[in-house]
Amino acid sequence: xxxxxxxxxxxxxxxxxxxxxxxxxxxxxxxxxxxxxxxxxxxxxxxxxxxxxxxxxxxxxxxxxxxxxxxxxxxxxxxxxxxxxxxxxxxxxxxxxxxxxxxxxxxxxxxxxxxxxxxxxxxxxxxxxxxxxxxxxxxxxxxxxxxxxxxxxxxxxxxxxxxxxxxxxxxxxxxxxxxxxxxxxxxxxxxxxxxxxxxxxxxxxxxxxxxxxxxxxxxxxxxxxxxxxxxxxxxxxxxxxxxxxxxxxxxxxxxxxxxxxxxxxxxxxxxxxxxxxxxxxxxxxxxxxxxxxxxxxxxxxxxxxxxxxxxxxxxxxxxxxxxxxxxxxxxxxxxxxxxxxxxxxxxxxxxxxxxxxxxxxxxxxxxxxxxxxxxxxxxxxxxxxxxxxxxxxxxxxxxxxxxxxxxxxxxxxxxxxxxxxxxxxxxxxxxxxxxxxxxxxxxxxxxxxxx
Length: 451
What we know:
Layout: E1 3-13, E2 21-30, E3 33-38, E4 47-50, E5 54-58, E6 60-62, H1 83-94, H2 99-115, E7 118-122, H3 135-146, E8 149-156, H4 175-189, E9 198-204, H5 212-225, E10 229-233, H6 237-247, H7 251-257, E11 265-269, H8 275-284, E12 287-290, H9 292-297, H10 305-311, E13 315-317, H11 330-345, H12 352-366, E14 383-387, H13 403-406, E15 415-418, E16 421-425, E17 428-429, H14 434-449
Parallel strand pairs: 1-4, 1-5, 6-7, 7-8, 8-9, 10-11, 11-12, 12-13
Antiparallel strand pairs: 1-2, 2-3, 5-14, 14-15, 15-16, 16-17
Helix pairs in contact: 2-3, 2-14, 4-5, 11-12
């Protein structure tokens, strides 16, 4: 029985059902779960962590990413493009993906996320070039090496340019191929147990790059296996106009008729929903992954998050792909989300603590998990720590529930713990050599971009 005793936590922001902040407490973790939270816990553990002077938060949960895009970020040729042109340009790079690119980009991106307090990563991978190898296996190996909790997806595309879609022929597959591989991925990687370190969702890319049949069959298969469904939706006005012209209806109406609403479905972005559609999302408990920085970089718009929260639409926070964000920090996303909605919605905007809850409890809800997203007895021991005596936090500790949104934290956190294991210590990854990883990843990135 592996155990970790965390002593002398200055302030523990639990994000539990009572929104408690506890002072001067210890946490005892056993076999990846929280066993006890109390002052001055007695006894011994396999590992001891002294958290004197530390703020402790639940691990952040990223609900939408494209980790492979780490190797195509900050490229000058796409800096001022909007979504459709941006995608068509980058597909010419992404068609050269292989398992080594996936392994190293995943380790790079997930490592950066962990250094900024993220403990669970959902990745939406939908580019499977012909002959590219075992891409999901490479990503799972990367997560295992880092010690992060992974929610992977078997994404898909079956409409290439010749079919009216955006990607080239070499990265699309037939519906039969996709369904067979989706079943194999679920059976191999999806762990239904409480505290699972790996789960799988089915995630066709978007309604403008997949057929109605692929969406329909994915929904049927997902419900047969009891896994969740995810896709991009209502990200841009271009998408809305595309669907109106091709299908004669708005994107959400199209998805609804194909079985894509319900508490097992969440969409990335969800910027351009109207009021009636927001009510439908609330009534069906269909969720939205909010990606504020990506939405701003691609000039896509501002999601109606205050209205969603008011209606109890499930909402989580996300970084999105690194080529449309250029960073990998949910802490940065958290503060930008707070400031963006203050600017756009004034008094109706969510508070700093509301945004923290979005990135923890809200994100866990999107992923259908009640074992993560809060610090409470019986939950997974996923958390991160920040020294409250940092110079940049002087005078900022009067509202520790909101400070990550209002003031923000630059740089790495002090500790990240995933399932009771210290994975970041003193701001550095514990289980991998960061310098070696950066060198190997840069070398691979240069070779990939030169193809």
